Amino acid sequence: MGKIIVLEGLDKSGKTTQARLLFDYLNDKYPGQIDLFSFPDYSTKIGEEIRSFLDGKVQYNPQTKHMLLSANRWEKKENILESLKSGKTIILNRYYQSNLVYGLANGLDFEWLSTLDRGMPKEDITIILDVSPRVSYLRSIANNFILDEFEKSREFLEKVRFNYLELAKVCNWNVLHSENSSDIIFKSILDIIGEQ
Ligand SMILES: Nc1ncnc2c1ncn2[C@@H]1O[C@H](COP(=O)(O)OP(=O)(O)O)[C@@H](O)[C@H]1O
Ligand SMILES: Cc1cn([C@H]2C[C@H](O)[C@@H](COP(=O)(O)OP(=O)(O)O)O2)c(=O)[nH]c1=O
Fold it and tell me: Ligand 2 in contact with 157 (CB < 6 A)?
């Protein structure tokens, strides 16, 4: 395969669930040939800083937040390139697309946001798991999740969803209705990546 597949969507849209299912499925089919990366990667120093502002423990202006979110990907550039060089397929649970849609919703400029990730490996396929902010919220409270700074406002999540759907039209992103069961969504993902 040797592809970069990006899973995107609102918080609690099912990205982690589907990334795991896809990893297990592909890794069975192509043993040792699949890597999975998630962003934000909270395990690094920059990741810890991201966790702190998402938890409201430190305050930054939107530019600084989105620069840190981008820097967190640059930290992983060599790891991603290494995987690609060895011919592996990479599944990304969020990538630069998150910074575009959330950054726009935070009032930042599209070109400025795009530049932050310019030079990072380009994806082959982007799949947006589309759910309404209401479903995102209901899944959060059903699981007693604590809402982070970006998840607290329904109006903000409406903007993020709008941005996903608008950018999907011009950026060739696949939009998948994701309020169905995990099984149905997973089958559609396999269809999109041509692995059915
Ligand atoms: N298709 C689905 N239908 C109902 N609940 C789901 C579905 N997919 C995931 N969930 C649940 O929603 C919550 C968020 O899922 P998760 O995969 O962690 O989303 P994300 O990574 O996008 O935040 C979890 O509790 C998960 O079990
Ligand atoms: C990776 C990334 C995430 N985000 C936002 C989306 C989410 O609201 C928030 C945290 O990501 P999230 O996927 O919700 O992390 P977790 O599920 O582990 O809590 O950061 C950006 O704005 N830009 C980015 O580049």
Answer: no
**How many angstroms is it from 143 CA to the middle of ligand 1?**
9
CATH 3.40.50.300 fits 4-189, yes or no: yes
The tens digit of pLDDT for each residue in 17-66 reads: 999 999 999 999 999 999 999 999 999 999 999 999 999 999 999 999 99
For residue range 88-119, list pLDDT tens digits in order: 999 999 999 999 999 999 999 999 999 999 99
Q: What is the ipTM of this complex?
A: 0.97
Ligand number with the minimum distance to the CA of 15: 1
User: 117: closest CA among 7, 39, 24?
Assistant: 39
Output DSSP code: residue 14: S
Structural domain spans, the chain: 4-189
